[in-house]
Fold this sequence. Notes:
Layout: H1 5-33, H2 39-54, E1 57-62, H3 69-77, E2 98-101, E3 110-115, H4 125-129, E4 136-139, H5 145-152, E5 158-162, H6 163-168, H7 178-183, E6 189-193, E7 195-201, H8 205-208, E8 211-215, H9 219-224, H10 226-235, E9 238-244, H11 251-261, E10 271-277, H12 289-307, E11 314-316, H13 319-328, H14 331-337, H15 339-394, H16 399-440, H17 443-457, H18 463-506, H19 519-537, H20 547-579, H21 581-606, H22 610-644
Parallel strand pairs: 1-8, 1-9, 2-7, 9-10, 10-11
Antiparallel strand pairs: 2-8, 3-4, 3-7, 5-6
Helix pairs in contact: 1-2, 1-15, 1-22, 2-15, 3-13, 10-20, 13-14, 15-21, 15-22, 16-18, 16-20, 16-21, 17-18, 17-20, 18-19, 18-20, 19-20
Bound molecules: guanosine-5'-diphosphate and magnesium ion.
Amino acid sequence: MxxxxxxxxxxxxxxxxxxxxxxxxRYQAWLETHDLASPEQEFRxxxxxxxxxxxxxxxxxxxxxxxxxxxxxxxxFFSHYGxxxxxxxxxxxxxxPTELFFDSVSESAYIHLLPIETRLQDKTIAEFxxxxxxxxxxxxxxxxxxxxxxxxHQVIRTRQVSLKQARELGLYDESSDPYFRAHQSTPAQVxxxxxxxxxxxxxxxxxxxxxxxxxxxxxxxMGNEPELTLNMxxxxxxxxxxxxxxxxxxxxxxxxxxxxxxxxxxxAGNNLIVALNKIDTLWDELKEPARVNASIESQRLxxxxxxxxxxxxxxxxxxxxxxxxxxxxxERLLERSRLGELEAFLAQTVLPHKREIMRxxxxxxxxxMIDENLALLEARKQAAGDHLAxxxxxxxxxxxxxxxxxxKSREEQAAYLRNVESFQNSRRLLxxxxxxxxxxxxxDSVDKLINKTRATMTHSWTxxxxxxxxxxxxxxxxxxxxQVSGHAEQTRMLIRATYKKFHEEHGLPQLAPKQFxxxxxxxxxxxxxxxxxxxxxxxxxAMTEQSFVIKKFFISLVSHTRxxxxxxxxxxxxxxxxxxxxxxxxxxxxxxTMEKRLDTLRRISESRDTLDSRIKELEVxxxxxxxxLDTLRQLRHALDCNVSAPPPPSSESKxxxxxxxxx
Length: 663
Ligand SMILES: Nc1nc2c(ncn2[C@@H]2O[C@H](COP(=O)(O)OP(=O)(O)O)[C@@H](O)[C@H]2O)c(=O)[nH]1
Ligand SMILES: [Mg+2]
């Protein structure tokens, strides 16, 4: 059986990342040898390497229940276990969201399960993740497939509770209860999931390379856990939305799509893919294959139309037949399941896209640092060259010339020192501005806003109360961001002016200071607002009985915004710490160069013998600088090449491969 494309592509992505880590580490070592890094820079590099090592690629599977999400995950990733590893069963509608990954810190296989009762607390799942004590822990014995499969069954465990309890947990709502619709009365007992969230660490090669799979439950459960829509899905690199060919696009599919998935469409960094599953239900031995294919094709186009997505993003598949085909090594059946087309698409778009994101994060940052070192070395080379030429020209000249040169350099030095003084003033001004900016971004001010919002909501967790509260909240958050943006603009201007002055007046190399912009945070706020609004308007949340859900929703919304501000604050802080450093380093370098030059001239004026030895010294230094420049240029090149090398084009690519447009 041919190697899966996704497998190949993930492998090449991992290799690329490993190489990138090596390059960054070489740079780290280089900086250390030459003692050129500031503590901030050292920290940045450490962080970059850490981020590369921890890098994760999250694929989220989203759909109404029973569309075959779990079966598809089995077929795509776990077929070589020769069985259905994750439990996928007809009629089991309740399941908790499950994250599959490999825990590279503990290096062990386990299931951690968060009890459903934790819903009674005002904490998000993200917060619970930081407190292992709340989770039930089951160790997995990876050599015992039966034990693993058995343990995984925990995830779909349910239990019966009284109606009152179910309501308290926010897990019962008449409007979506088929029993209530049939009998016009509420049941005494309600079946609820046993667990709220599952974390599964498993040493599967994909997972070990950083793949994370998020398996989500159906519409009801999505509505119950707003954190999924607000936080987890937007963080995924790709979202796979499933439809089933035997049901077509149902009302609840549409609702799921509109309220939980659609909002992700506009977001850069997200690939949205639709799988039209269970095409095997359209297979018919009595029909000609061409006619079967035609009906699959027409359903594919109709689904694209209904969801309003590019039809190239809709993949007809049979997860079940694909899984069987892979387990039995049945090429023909695998072909018919059309799983390969989906795999190829994932391999050709999702992973390269992920590389681009990495490029944006790590390569640009480290690249800029190397560029700064290069500029500094170039300036050093230039200064050494000039000085050398000056000294060579002094051979055989009389003392007057030297005295003249000395007084000229003293003048230059004095002018320079005056500017350095004014630089110190700009720095002080910068600090004041920075303080205002950080103040607007501080958690204190966000918390004030949160409290104000709480007051607006008073005790009304109804949709109207919710709407008002949300507006207060987002207006406040937007205002704060706008203020920050204003401060940031002023700060940028000051910084640019300072850099420019030293470049123009003293010939220091031209550097583009790093920029900070609030644009990405504002976009993220806007997205949160859109999603929050869609969530609020969703029929599932519009019920007064759902006030519990609304509260949960608000908690995760607030927590997300709070961390957004925290991140913005950190980023701004780091930026401010670093932004002047390149100039500071150049100023220091320039100052030393001037002092050395004066010193040399003074010594030559005292004794002509020093001239030749000083020339030799400078020649050695210059050679050294040239070598450093070479090494650093090679590193810079490695960093770029590492990135620009595209993944090897696959000969097996099929239809859809050219459609790289983002939805
Ligand atoms: N005929 C057919 N049934 C499927 C296919 N994929 C999944 N199923 C069945 O649909 C049911 C629900 O699948 P499951 O993976 O649990 O769906 P989930 O709720 O979306 O995770 C199970 O009985 C599966 O065997 C498929 O491609 N064809
Ligand atoms: Mg499932």
